[in-house]
């Protein structure tokens, strides 16, 4: 457990803060500035609540029911009711890290002083995070506008002491029991507070931030496996020369080419393509164009990071308390900016998986592998080698292509046509999480095949970085060439090797830090 403390102020949080709280369970504290801003905004809401004129979210119904004025005697019930009625999710529970990210990001918006909730509401949410209490949030229920309503409602329900949650030991129990054990008083919601807890893009944004962190590691990993495959195929590293990429100055392309070149430094395997009976003039596209494809994905990732950064600095609620004291309705809860980049990343990830699979297939085909045994088998015909590992990889690629179909173009009207255009950003985020998992497995299969192929190139010394990868992979329990064996455990260990960052960690002591 990470005992680092993240302080939440009025100006937003960083992506690193989100990852620390979501994955490493860093503690959360509200700054004095945030507590002052919360109190000041609450004074504005209390003053409006005392007036006879209706104010949306304070003294009216919600959505298509906003035309009804709600008297003071029913307002506490109104806020409880919106949480209970909107906590309507269905399907499997989403991952703990996603719920923690969602709660932390909602706390970030509360701390901005733009929502009008009392300081004690924000303190209670920080208390849940610090206690390791994670509300049960379901897969289905968000249209991504007015934010992630159902997921956020399940979290707000937990603040009220209702529903179920996962305790710090991972056991799901009634929230009331968990709050009592940790000395957290259930929140009795007042004007606007129920609405303020529900009305944001926090779920889709949390998943975007986590995906960006994972994809950053995967793009570096894919550069490494592409270099290993180039080496195993006796390809040329001359196409990676900086001057070639300088004349098409996409930053991601240059970074990927530089990564590959550093991995291949000192190899005796590269550059043999003109020494065969039928010399190759050029390597195949899946090898030669690896920096162009991975680089385009890197640039997509950079744009997604810009969008995430803007959202992390935002206060998303409706209505909002402005610095001059006005309370205004708005449409900032619409998830389009986040939904678009979630879909864009799924497209880029699918293409990275596709080119990695093509390289793997080339390694296994003796007609295109330049002297390697069929399927990298010890005794082809008796042994099948990695034949079906490529099938598994191909199945994952095919699934990634389906996951690349955009969710954000599929608006569906809701709330009696009041909310007649929605972002589907939550759905885009959910499928991207699956795509990132699949991409990790695809890269792991290429790693498994490329390292075996390098070891089968007898008499030639691989690059120092390649030797470091092979040694670390074998130490992690992934076996090298030999007769057929039960393959699934090897593939699972290779997956863990990539997923946990061990591939990058094995290379960088040799190459220095990679992009």
Automatic annotation (TrEMBL):
Enumerate the catalysed reactions.
Answer: L-histidine = trans-urocanate + NH4(+)
Keyword line: Cytoplasm, Histidine metabolism, Lyase
Enter cross-link residues for 5-imidazolinone (Ala-Gly).
Answer: 145-147
Task: Give the Enzyme Commission number.
Answer: 4.3.1.3
Q: What pathway or pathways are given for this protein in its record?
A: Amino-acid degradation; L-histidine degradation into L-glutamate; N-formimidoyl-L-glutamate from L-histidine: step 1/3
The record describes its post-translational modification as: Contains an active site 4-methylidene-imidazol-5-one (MIO), which is formed autocatalytically by cyclization and dehydration of residues Cys-Ser-Gly.
Per the record, residues carrying 2,3-didehydroalanine (Ser) are 146
- Localization, UniProt: Cytoplasm
**Stored PROSITE patterns:** PAL_HISTIDASE
What the entry lists under NCBIfam families is as follows:
hutH, PRK09367.1
Record PANTHER family: HISTIDINE AMMONIA-LYASE (PTHR10362)
Instruction: Please state which protein family the record places this protein in.
Output: Belongs to the PAL/histidase family.
What's the name of the protein? Histidine ammonia-lyase
Q: Which organism is it from?
A: Streptomyces hebeiensis
